[in-house]
Specification:
Order of helices and strands: HHHHHHHHHEHEEHEE
Shape: rod-shaped
Radius of gyration: 43 Å
Helix content: over 70%
Largest sheet: 5 strands, mixed
Structural class: alpha+beta
Distance between the termini: 47 Å
Number of helices: 11
Number of strands: 5
Strand content: 5-15%
Strand order of the largest sheet: 1-2-3-5-4
Length: 388
């Protein structure tokens, strides 16, 4: 944008030099009206050329314009009044009025509109003061001021377009910065989602693995059942392998490549029943609808965490999973019977009692969802909800 602006300024200066040359040729090839008039023409043209060069230097770069902008009204005003007055007084120099118009265009572009109006008034006053005593033609007394006004309006319109172009360029640059910032935020969000998903997968896998190791240890130490311990350790090995596989699938799940929620819950219940020998009932109510990948993952992870806790704290107890599609929310309820007298085991008393459920709660909060866990009679109930 800066290079384009500089090119336009150079082109503007070049156009002024060309206009100055044309006006000079037209003025000095006309009939010589007399020595006095010739002297006036030469002085006016030379002075205008010097002043126009000074104004062009001020406008040539941003640095000089900011530093010497206070000179522009005086330079352009002098050009306007001088050329308009001489053009009205000396008939052979009427081409000088076009230099006044060029000055007015520059004033309209670079100065406040109020200052431009002042210059128009001064140029008109000079024209009338020099033309009326000599019975100048209407071309001079009427049309010269109209040309000055036209130059001001053209310059103002040009300045408005330039300001609009600069604002558009600034907005475009800001938009590009915002796009880059959004891309960075999206990248960071994706990394956070991947890290959270991998954490949850590993937490689920390691939690289930710990349960199997405890069972194997009990089979060896309490029951002295080596075959049972070997079988459970084999299951633990398979679970570790499945955990690694599920970790590799986590990124695919983040991209939405996951099965329907109800099908996923059926798979989870089948795995839990096969591994822990506990009956799991899955029930779906309401009209199923498509949920976002994050919502589906969050509900599936809550079900996984609840099943792991059930195997850990209430082994062999039946589990019920109910998925309900309501008008404004989708809810998951996982309930299982409590061991013994109905008192939860240590570490299972609240949602924050285990890092797994706490992580699930944080994940649901990101989706404006909720998670609760607690005892209802002889049942331990985990309830997760996400908005529609």
């Amino acid at each position: 944008m800066t290079d384009t602006r500089q090119v336009l300024r150079v082109a503007n200066v070049s156009a002024r030099i060309l206009a100055l040359a044309i006006v000079g040729v037209v003025t000095f090839i006309a009939d010589w009206p007399g020595r006095t008039a010739i002297a006036v023409e030469i002085v006016a043209f030379t002075t205008t050329a010097v002043l126009m060069a000074a104004a062009s230097l001020v406008e040539l770069s941003t640095a000089t314009r900011e530093r010497y902008a206070f000179l522009l009204p005086y330079l352009l005003g002098t050009i306007t009044v001088l050329c308009a007055t001489v053009a009205a007084a000396v008939p052979s120099a009427d081409a000088l009025i076009y230099l006044s118009v060029i000055a007015m265009i520059s004033a309209g572009t670079n100065l406040r509109l109020s200052v431009g109006w002042i210059l128009v008034v001064l140029g008109t006053a000079g024209t009338e003061a020099a033309g009326l005593p000599q019975d100048a033609s209407p071309w001079i007394t009427v049309q010269f001021p109209c040309l000055l006004l036209l130059g001001l309006l053209l310059g103002f319109n040009r300045g408005a377009h330039r300001v609009a172009a600069e604002q558009a360029a600034a907005l475009l640059a800001r938009s590009e910065e915002l796009r880059k910032e959004q891309a960075l935020v999206a990248t960071l969000d994706e990394r956070a989602r991947i890290a959270r998903e991998i954490h949850d997968v590993l937490a689920h896998s390691l939690g289930a693995l710990a349960v199997n190791i405890q069972v194997a240890q009990a089979a060896l130490t309490d029951q002295h059942d080596v075959s049972r311990a070997v079988d459970v350790l084999g299951q633990a090995r398979r679970m570790a392998t499945d955990g690694l596989t599920e970790t590799r699938r986590a990124v695919q799940a983040l991209r939405g490549e996951i099965p329907p929620l109800a099908d996923g819950l059926v798979v989870l219940s089948s795995d839990h029943q096969r591994r822990h020998g506990a009956r799991v009932l899955v029930e779906v109510t309401g009209q199923p609808r498509e949920l976002s990948p994050d919502a589906r993952l969050a509900i599936a992870r809550v079900a996984q965490e609840a099943l792991v806790n059930s195997a850990k704290h209430a082994p062999h107890q039946p589990v019920e999973i109910r998925l309900a599609y309501a008008d404004r929310a989708t809810s998951l309820v996982v309930s299982n019977r409590l061991d013994g007298a109905g008192t939860p085991q240590p570490g299972f008393g609240t949602v924050d009692g285990g890092y797994g459920l706490a992580g699930m709660r944080e994940r649901l909060l990101l989706l404006d969802g909720t998670l609760s866990a607690g005892r209802t009679g002889t049942q331990w109930v985990v309830v997760a909800k996400v908005p529609q």
